Amino acid sequence: xxxxxxxxxxxxxxxPESRPLFTSAHLEVTQVCQRTPTRPQGAEWTxxxxxxxxxxxxxxHGGEFIVVRQERIPIRAALWEFPAGQVDxxxxxxxxxxxxxxxxxxxxxxxxxxxxxxxxxxxGHFFSSxxxxxxxxxxxxxxxxxxxxxxxTPAEGEAITACRxxxxxxxAGWIARGDIRDANTLAAYARLCALEQNPAAP
Amino acid sequence: xxxxxxxxxxxxxxxPESRPLFTSAHLEVTQVCQRTPTRPQGAEWTxxxxxxxxxxxxxxHGGEFIVVRQERIPIRAALWEFPAGQVDxxxxxxxxxxxxxxxxxxxxxxxxxxxxxxxxxxxGHFFSSxxxxxxxxxxxxxxxxxxxxxxxTPAEGEAITACRxxxxxxxAGWIARGDIRDANTLAAYARLCALEQNPAAP
Lengths: 202, 202
Hints:
The structure is a homodimer. Chain A is an alpha+beta fold. Chain A has helices spanning 95-110, 168-176, 183-197, and strands at residues 17-23, 28-36, 39-49, 53-60, 65-72, 77-81, 84-86, 112-127, 136-147, 160-166.
C-alpha cells in the first residue's frame, strides 16, 4: 500500500513501477518509473512520499483569523501559520477524517473550536511541491470559532510558542510584507481571496 | 557546504549537528539535532534538503497571466502553473542569480521574456513544506512580458504540454474552483492579492 494516496483526478495515470530507496517515520523516498501521456515508455523520477495533511483557516465571531507561531526545524526559524497537521492514517483519507483532522489540529495548536452553529467549509487541496513530493494538503475554513474549555494541547514533538487572532486587513499586511511565508497559509489565503471574487465558484 | 542555504532571518538559529541518511541528484535527507529557543538541549528531526527555486508571475501588456501545463510525476497528474524552476547552484543565491533563474524559467517553459522597459519585481519567498523540508521558493512578478523570438526551450526531463495566457479574473476563477493546485502559483497569487490591498507594503 502506498504511503499516501492522491485525490482522484479526472484522468489518473497508471500506478508506476516503484522501488524503495529510503524510509523513515515521516517520509518514504522511492524511485519510480512512471508512464505519462507524453512519455508512454515511462520516465524515471525520485519521489518523496508524505501523508496527507490539513490546514484550517479559522475565524472568530468578529472575523479575526487564528494564527500560531511554530518552531520549524528544517528552516531553523519560527513561523506564524494557520494551524495544520498530518492525517493520522496513510492511504486516501475520507472527507470525515479530513474534517476531524482539521478540527483536531485547530484545538491542539490554538485552543479554539468550532462555535455552536459554526461551519467547516472545504476549500479543496493543493500540492506543496509536486516536482519532488506527493504531499497533498487539504484546506478548510472554520467560522465562527471560539476558545475551547480545554485550551491548547500541543502534540509531542511540536513547539507552538504563541497563538493570536489577526484582523483580516492585518493578515493581508503580514502577507504583503512577507511575514507569512509557509505554503499552507498562503495557499489557504489565495483560495479565500479568489472565492471572494467568485462567490459561486465552489 | 549545505545542499541549500536559507534566506537570513532576524535571529538565526545555530547550524545543527547533521548526519546524512540518503542522497540523490535532486535531494538530500539528513538527520539533524537542532537547538531551538524552546529546546536548547536540541531536538532530533529528519530534514529533506532541496535547492532554492524561483516562481514567476508574468503578465502581458494586456495584464493577462502566463500559465504552463506541466506533467508532475510525483502526483501522477499534469497541472496548470506559473513557470518555475530550481536555481542551478547550491548555497544561498544572490539576488542577481534569482532574477536570472526566474527569467530563464519563464523563457524556457513559456517562450515569453520581459518586454523592453518591463520590470521584474521580487515578491519575497516562501517555504513549500517547512515541517519536513528546507525548500525555499523565491517569488517574482514580471510585467509586461512578450513572446521571445526563440520560443520555448523546455529543459531535459520536463514535460510542458501547453502554455496559455489567462485574464486576471479567469485566474481567480481557476483558483476558486481548485483548478490551480500547486503551492508555487497559489503563494504568488496570495502575495499579489495582499499587495493589492497594501500597495505600500514591500
